[in-house]
Amino acid sequence: MNTALPVINLYAVMPQIVLVSAATVVLIVGLFERFRKGIPYLSLLLLAVSGVVAVNQLGLGPVPFSDVSSMMVMDDFGLVATLVFIAGAVLTVLISISYAEARSIDRGEYYALLIYAVSGMSMMAASTDLFTFFLGLEVLSISLYVLIGFEQRDAGSNEGALKYFLLGAFASGFILYGMALLYGASGSTEYEAIARTLGGERSDAVNLLLLGGLGLLLVGIGFKISMVPFHAWTPDVYQGAPTPVAAFLSTGSKAAAFVVLIRLLGSVFPGLQMEWIPLISVLAVLTIAVGNVVALVQTNLKRLLAYSSIAHAGYMLLPLMADSQDGSASIVFYLIVYTAMNLGAFGVLAVLSARGAPCATLEDLAGLGSRRPLLAAVMAVVMFSLAGIPPTAGFMAKFYLFSALVHGGYVELAVIGLLFSGVSLYYYLRVVVWMYMRPAAETPAEAAGRLSYTGMTALCLSALAILAVGVFPSELLQLAERAVMTLP
Amino acid sequence: MTELPFLSLIIWLPVLGAVLLLFVKGDTAARWVGFGVSALVLVLFAVCFGAFETHLGDPQFVERMPWIESLGVSYHVGADGISILLAGITALMWPLALLGTWTIVSERVRAYQVFMLLMETTLMGVFFSLDLFLFFLFWEGMLIPMYFLIGIWGYENSARAALKFFLFAVFGSLLMLAAVITLAFLYHQAHDVLTFEMAALYQLSIPPEVQFWLALAFIAAFAVKVPMVPFHTWLPDAIVLAVVLVKMAAYGFIRLTLPLFPDALAELAPLMCAVAAAGIVYGALIALAQSDIRRMIAYSTISHAGFVVLGVFALNQHGIQGAVVHIVSLALSTGGLFLAAMMLVQRRNTWDMEAYGGLWHTIPVFSAFLLVFTLASVGLPGLSSFVGEFLILVGVFQQHIPIAAVAATGIILAAVYMLRMYRKVVFGPLTREENKGIRDLSFRETAVLACMTLFIIWIGVYPNPFLRTMEASVQKLLVQTHRLAETPPAGMTPETIQDMR
Amino acid sequence: MSYLPLILLVILVLIVAAVIVTLSSYIGRKKTSASKLASYECGVPIKDSARKNFSVKFYLIAILFILFDVEIIYLYPWAVVYGDLQLYGAAAMGVFFLLLVIGFLYEWKRGALEWD
Fold first, then answer.
1. In chain A, whose CA is at the least distance from the CA of C92?
2. How many other C-beta atoms can be found within 10 angstroms of the C-beta atom of residue B381?
3. Quick one: pLDDT at residue A447?
4. In chain C, which residues have their Cβ closer than 8 Å to the Cβ of A27?
5. In which element (H, E) is residue B48 found?
């Protein structure tokens, strides 16, 4: 017997290798009590290293992981996505430091799991095979289950973790079943092979399998991006999870699922467009509508942001219909901007909550404008950006997204989306109203003491980035366009 | 002279001032910085205005550089006769407004100055943009400072008013955004180039039924801000900025709606004129019923805004020139009226007309200025509003006689409600004790109001320079609007106005 | 015919089992008690309340046991083709074991193996 060994290109998966190693190092170092204070900074350093590795690989073109079955590929699309995830994780670590210390959850595992989650996301982004996609998804999900429940003594945190775990397990089940059907139809788990089956002649039975598989995959991914009707977990989980984790959950895991969705729908399932375009368009509009309308009546800030993130997922679904490079690029651009915005919004809450009383409701923000001018300014920038008002990045992202949609010929959907984004203004501005136009009833507990420097650095960075991209979006747009160029 | 990027300086100087303000400590210093920067903008503008060539209809002082290349957006600014007049009145009003509210705004002074300066930037940007994307950016960006100005420094219920205003404005703008994207898309289909250049988009031939919807979207955006009935309900709560908005929105009508959608206008213009005329009468009638000075001024603004829209949609030289002059004069007369009222309220702390009376005896200087602004609002010949209203009515009479007749009643009603207010506040016996010890205007306040009065009289008596400045531009606009090969019949020259007077 | 050894094995097993059971029932000493006569006997009462508490430590040990137990399964196929895999195989299994060892060290240091 002679086994033919596959030629493996480890360089192609270097970012993922570095991320996994980084997480493991953090885990081990975290075992030693005397390094406790240094763990977050070690995580930042290692994340930066993996970022440098990913940047160095940019533009080197698609390199498959192995010659036999590609499994994973190193291309600009995956790398840009990885960079976004890393940036999101860096910001999350920064806003976590004071929060985690205040709640005594500043253990090595916290930061290690965060980096493991990033490695899973990165794997999802680079995968060209259902197996690696699922592997990445599970690495991400399992890390998140633990992270959400990290505040062991907090009932909300436990509730959120259990809900996310149960529903996440169901979603994984759906995805697995969908994969099985796809495998049954095409005889392979590789994206390319499935796409080939779709491209060729196919019998009704095979068609049914493919459709069923796609449908089940969409259910599972829809859960991850909190698409209506699979969104119900979002507010509870965001509310219960430690605030920095909620920030990470709303940006990173959602972005990873979107990246997979772009790859799948763009390069595997164009053959079924007639079937999924109507489906996605209806679901996208529903998602936008439900997210925006329900957010109107929220008074809890995390729930408000949860519904807002549902609505944003809806916007990002829209350009999938346009089925163009522009459309995909606009999603990537939107994801980048959205990551900065949402991390900023949750970050403000995290930094505020780190000082004594948690900052939970709109009332807690009253008078923030005079109490904490810098923090309030950051929040205002973020809110205007989420609402899509120039000169913020949120406007540019929306503009690019809706113009891709119009260019794809979906003017009606663009108008609907824009009108609902008008609705969204109401609740974003309510936050601003509370901060600047309502005096505080009494001096809250967090009024005394300084805010964490690291958290403020992260927040100011993201606010500045939002403004800078709002005025000079060219560079980032080009990056997004370059990223999708490598997609087939 | 023209080597200096004048327009960019005018647009961005206030932003620099706002950044500078972040490092300034103390209210008085902040006031001086705000005033100084806006005064500097005025000086720059005066230099610019001096170099403006009135006989050219094309944009001047043009600056252009690529900005977001992948979207075909460029930073392209320039000033033509219409925009330079509107920018001029903005540049003039800003230092005056800051000076006029020197002590009226006593809370969070620094933030107030910052937002005022940011708003000046966005206004100037709107007037000078030659790229539709840039225009939209400034147009939407303006909402942020405006929102804070209404919400923080407005009067009672201001947070709610700010929200209401913002939602109204944004819904209009979002429709416009969809139309802007569609326009660029249509251009891309026709010429395979992605661009937002206004001049290029003007040349686009769009099927009339598409034009109709796009025009409606643009009109929605502008009508909310003008504000036209029935989109006016935010105004009485947020009067502070009404004058500014009228300016912007009317400019939007002139700059975009007219030349972009000539075919749709054939259908829409008479309708718009009719709605505008209805708005004139409606605003005037409601103003008649108010006893609150602020609300009265608000409804009178709705009425005046109707005149402006009417002039624009008359689609002829008289109408449009009249509309522009009327906008300028509105800024002076209504702006002055409101500023004066704010000074009075600062002393007595009530907007109720009934609380005053007999002020002529205690504060004669104030009363004299209030008289000028009241009469200017009424449209007394010799004062600024007369020129505008007269030209508008002449323009409309050429198109729709019944509408003009209805609109003319608005002037009569204006006389009724304005003089009624003046009588209640200033004349009559001095019955109330609180009004006896009231202080008259300080030197600073007198200077501000005097400056505005000066311009009101100047435009009223000798409007030639203003009319001549925009004449060529308006003609060019009409050529585009009517898609005419030849120039339209020569419009009203300044001489003919003199004759009529 | 190639199944012959297998069939022989099955027959042999059956014979041995029958012999043992028969022998023990004849020559074994019998001391009966209620729980010994129960149909299934493993030291734990077979009929008991379902709401009985077990120490949570059992679960932890069980989970850890299963983790390491399952991972051993990888060793068998690896050992079978080891000759073909050569250095490549050694390196891959080395990485695998390194990760296992790290996991083991982690749980040791965290105190998961301490009963008290």
1. A8
2. 13
3. 55
4. 102, 106
5. helix B27-51
A1 Cα to chain C: minimum distance (Å): 8
Is A203 domain-assigned?
Answer: yes
What crossing angle do the helices spanning A233-240 and A301-317 adopt, rounded to 10°? 130
The tally of CA atoms less than 13 A away on the side-chain side of residue A223 is 22
Going by C-alpha positions, the residue among A439, A418, A433 that lies closest to residue B147 is A433
Contact of A325 with chain B, judged by CB distance below 8 Å, is answered with no
Task: Give me the residue label for tokens 């053959």.
Answer: A271
Q: Which residues of C touch A28 (CB under 8 A)?
A: 102, 105-106
Residues of A in contact with C110 (CB under 8 A): 31
SS3 per residue for B140-203: HHCHHHHHHHHHHHCCCCHHHHHHHHHHHHHHHHHHHHHHHHHHHHHHHHHHCCCCCEHHHHHC
Q: Where are the alpha helices (DSSP H) in B400-493?
A: 401-426, 443-461, 464-481
The minimal CB distance from A403 to the residues B108, B174, B184 is found for B184
Which strand (E) or helix (H) includes residue B33?
helix B27-51
Residue A183 located in a structural domain: yes
Separation CA A384–CA A370 (nearest Å) = 19
Say how many CA atoms lie within 13 Å of A1 toward its Cβ: 8
Specify the pLDDT at position A462: 93
Instruction: Kindly determine whether residue B166 and residue A429, on different chains, have CB atoms separated by under 8 Å.
Output: yes
- Tokens at A70, concatenated: 């590609």
Q: Annotate chain C with DSSP letters as a single string.
A: -TTHHHHHHHHHHHHHHHHHHHHHHHHS-----TTTTSSS-SSS-SS--S-----HHHHHHHHHHHHHHHHHHTHHHHHHTHHHHHHHHHHHHHHHHHHHHHHHHHHHHHTTT---
Predicted local distance difference test score (pLDDT) of residue B498: 44
Domain boundaries along the sequence of chain C: 4-110
Domain C4-110 sits in CATH 1.20.58: yes
- Can you give the pLDDT at residue A93? 95
The candidate with the shortest Cα–Cα distance to B240, out of B170, B111, B154, B168, is B154
A1 occurs within a structural domain = no
Whole-prediction pTM value?
Answer: 0.88
| ipTM of this complex prediction, to 2 decimal places | 0.85
Across the interface, do A24 and C102 touch by the CB < 8 Å criterion? yes
Asked if the structure places residue A312 within a domain, the reply is yes
Q: How far is the alpha carbon of C107 from chain A, nearest alpha carbon, in Å?
A: 10
Single-letter amino acid, residue C94: G
- Say whether B14 sits in a helix, a strand or coil: helix
How confident is the model over B370-404, as pLDDT tens digits?
999 999 998 888 898 899 999 999 999 888 889 99
| Total domain count, chain A | 1
Handedness of CA B101, B105, B109, B115 (dihedral sign): negative
Q: Are A347 and A95 in contact (CB under 8 A)?
A: yes
Q: Is the pLDDT of residue A16 over 90?
A: yes
Which domain covers residue A35, as residue numbers? 10-485
Q: Which helix (H) or strand (E) holds B74?
A: strand B73-79
Say yes or no to pLDDT of B10 above 50: yes
User: How would you class C26 by CB atoms within 10 Å of its CB: exposed for 0-12, middle for 13-18, buried for 19 or more?
Assistant: exposed
Q: State the DSSP string of B270-293.
A: HHHHHHHHHHHHHHHHHHHT--BH
User: What's the mean pLDDT in A424-433?
Assistant: 90
Across chain B, mean pLDDT equals 86
